[in-house]
Amino acid sequence: MASYDVRAHFAPQGKPFGAWATVTTARGSALSRTIAPSVGGTTCYAVRGRGLAGDIGSWSTITCVSTVVDDRRLTVSGGTRLTGSRLWAGTQTRIAGTGASLRLGNVSTRSVSTLTLRPTSSSPVLVDGVIVPR
């Protein structure tokens, strides 16, 4: 393979996906690229190879990644805001009790998953106590 292309498209929280755009082209023997997804929405990726003779392969199966939203963007009812250096972005919001809720724009939930992020260590990322593959 002479090179490969990676394309992506992004949907902000609660909005439709934008157009596909090429985010990187790797040439030669590059086996991996790190591409940071946009925060607060879903980014989908697809890859295709280009051969030495100029032939272009078809796009791969689409893979999507959703990222967390900073809890300070949420409207809270029946909750408590905490701060601390060990928390993601230095903050945490807890809700409890009848009628407690979180709202982001027109998206609301009364059932919240617990997300544990430790980006500066080798500890795993947990959602509701389940390890999320990296």
Order of helices and strands: EEEEEEEEEEEE
Strand content: 35-45%
Average pLDDT works out at: 73
Describe the strand arrangement of the main beta sheet, using strand numbers.
2-1-3-4
How many helical elements?
Answer: 0
Shape call: elongated
Structural summary, described in words:
- The chain has 134 residues and is mostly beta strands.
- The chain folds into 2 domains: 3-66; 71-132, no CATH class.
- It has strands at 3-12, 21-27, 41-50, 63-66, 75-77, 79-83, 91-95, 101-104, 107-109, 115-116, 125-127, 130-132.
- A 4-stranded antiparallel beta sheet has the order 2-1-3-4, with no helix packed on it. A 3-stranded antiparallel beta sheet has the order 5-8-9, with no helix packed on it.
- Strand 11 and strand 12 form a beta hairpin.
- The radius of gyration is 19 Å and the shape is elongated.
- The two termini are 26 Å apart.
Describe the SSE topology.
Blueprint: E1 3-12, E2 21-27, E3 41-50, E4 63-66, E5 75-77, E6 79-83, E7 91-95, E8 101-104, E9 107-109, E10 115-116, E11 125-127, E12 130-132
Overview in brief:
This protein has 134 residues and is mainly beta. Helix content is 0%, strand content 44%.
Quickly list its features.
single chain; 44% strand; mainly beta; four-stranded antiparallel beta sheet; 134 residues
